[in-house]
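Entry for the shared binder. Reason: the reviewer on the internal report wants the predicted structure included alongside the sequence.
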Amino acid sequence: MRREEITQAEAEEIAQLMQQRHQSYLNEGEYFEVSGYRSSGEVYTQVILRNAEESLYYPVECQMDMLRSDIEGPLEAMYLLLDFQDYYFGRYLSEDRDVYLAIDWAEYQFEDHVIVARGQIFNRKLEQMADRLLAGEKLGEC
């Protein structure tokens, strides 16, 4: 099963479309990143809502087992997963960022298909500061 990565051009186009679609709900400096792959056996996509300093880093991952799915093919499955992620971020952002996915892989019904998804919000900036503090580095005054 040959894996075909989402190309840089595809990823940028999808991220730009999501950016435009959700712009009114995004805080200054927030943006989307897209990655993933497809094969005859499985499809995986990841959409990250983040900011440059990584005080917001929210990866939402989806996958579909093509051997257990009745969807036409890997490309259609990839678009379905990306549609789910777009739908989810639309709800998350428009509902005051108070709608969450499971942290561990969980099944979701979407457009008559079962997909598996997970998501967890991170503050990588704070985590890096904590790691440096635990390593004995002095961080200065906050």
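Summary line for the report: Residues 4-134 form one domain.
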